[in-house]
Amino acid sequence: YLFDCEGHNVASFGQVGSTWLLLRKRMEEYQNHDLLSLAEVMNNVNQDYYRWTPIKSLVPAIVFCFDFREKELHFCPAGIPNLYVRKKKDIDYEQIDLKSSIVGYSEDSVFEEKVIPIGDVSDVMFTTDGLSDILSS
Q1: Cβ(50)–Cβ(58) below 8 Å
Q2: Distance CA 47, CA 93 (A)
């Protein structure tokens, strides 16, 4: 997983700690097959965020899993605007635009898992909103 909290102050310190804990717990459940999809992970994280965190703000995040047997990348974005892949034969990265709700936007948000083939991919770059803005321009 990757997430981006707002600010660099005491409030963001608490947000980072609670978000990290929620993501880590739900991803562990996914790895133990207690949760069946990354969409279920992100939906549960969003629900937990509303239920358990004292300070509510928006948290861009993405959970992902590389399946090297099937040569697929499974991911579920939450407000992360895009990711970048570079194919083995290419020099430049291809930008893949992502559209999704964001953790903390609505308690009723629904997140979807996406899959892309990675058989001919040499690099995958996950970015948060600030770095995405720089790379997109």
Answers
A1: no
A2: 34
